[in-house]
Amino acid sequence: MPQRRNVLLIVVDQWRADFVPHLGAGFLKTPNLDRLCREGVTFRNHVTTAVPCGPARASLLTGLYLMNHRAVQNTVPLDARHTNLGKQLRLIGYDPALIGYTTTTPDPRTSGPRDPRFTTLGDLMDGFRSVGAFEPNMDGYFGWLAHQGYTLPPRREDIWLPEGEDAVPGVTDRPCRIPAELSDSTFFTERALTYLKGRNGKPWFLHLGYYRPHPPFIAPAPYHAMYAPSDMPAPIRRARWEEEAAQHPLLRFYLRGISQGSFFHGAGGAATALQEGAIRQMRATYAGLITEIDDCLGRVFAWLDENGQWDDTMIVFTSDHGEQLGDHWLLGKVGYHDESFRIPLVVKDAGRNDRAGAVETAFTESVDVMPTILEALGGSIPRACDGRSILPLLDGPEPQGWRDHLFYEYDFRDVHYSRPEGELGLGMDDSALCVVQDARYKYVHFAALPPLFFDLQRDPHGFENLAEDTAHAGLVKDYAQKALSHRMRHAERTLTHFRATPQGLEERGVAAPPAMPRAAE
């Protein structure tokens, strides 16, 4: 196997798994992602272990479940004691570069209340070196636009309004006002190429983040018109949103409260007002944003080809979380539905091509990305890490003892832009759920609200709650116990393998450390 020298971790935002052509989305044009799928392994049953962005990226980059890292919502701090992928890469001689964002609120004990980072949605995670930041407040991008000679409007976000003075904000078939050559996706790509060209042949690790297909759902020309709404899959939902809301109090809160404004810049009104035609147009725009990213990745992949680095670069493609896109009458990433949690994962590892083009069905989670990259580079996987390396799945079938279910969490406590606690009558620490899901059943446990239970074989989209059905009482008990056992096994364990003995400190269950690899220069 050739020496691993480079890693490209591509993290897009809000890209759900069923919008990957290799997994069946034949209506999409993504030739560069298609190439990566042909040369790597695509994971069909992959989930983020938390939503929204901040918690999701904390899990992705620390390898910890929400229950352990406790950055439970956007704007909630990440404890400085936790290690992460960037810090671990530094231990083996890499200088991990980051383009994009991590939506990390810093530990307030390391700073003070007047620190400007506490006035934003998130900042950059410690351990990475920014070579193209988007946070805070997208200043890097807007500054780049101004430097390119583009005249910014007084309210900078108006660049994403529909083109034309007579345009009405909201779902639209018009392009946004910013041209594709000045879009945020182009900005990230330019930053990536600038970084790669400056490496001068030295090994590198690059977290390449993209903001899209995150809202606002409006694409630059020509991507705005690349897909016809009629070619988009129809939304999966009951006939009326009130029928969906009757399933659970949390769902009722979101269906009554989600505004279109966060998804279509300048728009108002509730998401439940979107009819099927508007949903299909929104999805066509979402698909256009996806193809724009794919074209941008094509520029990065072409540079790797031209400079002889494609074959010895490990490439991991994933998203932070999914997007409801009108399914269940919802927008965004909320609650417990698959559309919010199922995300793409494609891995092409240098020297591993026995399963090129395979679609792997084993259960994988976002917490697996960190240990996978560390093992591939010869690093040590921290004891506290909740994930496990998926390198064995790149070489052959699912190994014995692999996980038999997926586990993910959502904390819905009050934040400044969403306040469910009062309406639901819950305290801050009661506003949480976890999901245990396998091929047949899905169990949703709430800290202080009624549970949910679905038979995915009969009801794959989770419309019929069986939690109160006496015929399923035994299964509900079994899955509740499975959820509890999962949490107990993964309780924080940084130091639990040490013990004091008459002979001194003993470290249990740890093999002799591997020889240190030659440091990346």
From TrEMBL:
InterPro entries reported in the protein's UniProt record: Alkaline_phosphatase_core_sf, HdlasePehA, Sulfatase_N
Disordered as annotated region, ranges: 502-521
Cellular-component GO terms for this entry: cytoplasm
Keyword Metal-binding: yes
SUPFAM superfamilies registered for this protein in UniProt: Alkaline phosphatase-like
Gene Ontology molecular function: any one: metal ion binding
Domain Sulfatase N-terminal: 5-378
Any Pfam family matching the protein: Sulfatase
Keywords assigned: Hydrolase, Metal-binding
PANTHER family xrefs: IDURONATE 2-SULFATASE (PTHR45953:SF1)
Name assigned to this protein: Sulfatase
